[in-house]
Design brief:
single chain, alpha/beta, 6-stranded mixed beta sheet
Length: 184
């Protein structure tokens, strides 16, 4: 490493003769290009999905952490597609969820719940079309609480497939049955 004699101003070119300022200015730095303009209506063209927090059907406060884990897993998986936006809800208010999701520009609404009995867990997720309120897909996953990561991954993959299909996938038998008023 060479030694410099005397300070050099920041941005000034070092002189050819040590200790003597140069008369030549540094080469100008090209400005950064402006980001490409988004076409008009771009935000409206990108589909988005609203994600409700998963509800603890068992109502055991010790299991509330499961809601956070599942909700974040769904949000993250959908955001990673890069093909859609994700709208989140602060609280699970299912009574106004479709209206709120529609007002926030979401095309789909994902929500659900989980029930723990001993060391067993059932996760149920629903994907709804916001515009018509139609149930597109129901996902039910059962297993051991110790296998929560695996259960969540399976549930998220099915939810993501329903949304990636554009909501055009045929409804499952479970989805049709849950839409009937007499289906408990």
């Amino acid at each position: 490493g060479g030694r410099r004699d005397g300070p050099t101003a920041i941005g000034a070119a070092p002189s050819a003769t040590p200790g003597v300022e140069s008369d030549t200015a540094p080469a100008p730095v090209a400005p950064l290009p402006e980001p490409a303009a988004r076409p008009a209506g771009f935000a409206d063209a990108v589909p988005s999905v609203a994600v409700l927090p998963f509800v603890n059907v068992s109502r055991n406060p010790a299991d509330d952490w499961i809601s956070t884990d599942m909700t974040v897993a769904v949000q993250t998986a959908l955001e990673r597609t890069g093909a859609m936006g994700v709208v989140t809800f602060a609280a699970a208010d299912e009574s106004t969820a479709l209206e709120t999701a529609g007002a926030r520009g979401a095309r789909w609404l994902v929500g659900g719940g989980y029930q723990r009995v001993g060391d067993r867990l059932r996760i149920t997720a629903r994907v709804l079309d916001v515009a018509g309120g139609d149930l597109i897909r129901v996902v039910k996953v059962d297993g051991a609480v110790d296998a929560l990561d695996t259960l969540t991954t399976e549930m998220v993959a099915t939810v993501r497939a329903a949304v990636d299909d554009g909501g055009e996938a045929p409804r499952t038998t479970a989805a049709r049955d849950l839409r009937r008023p007499d289906a408990g």
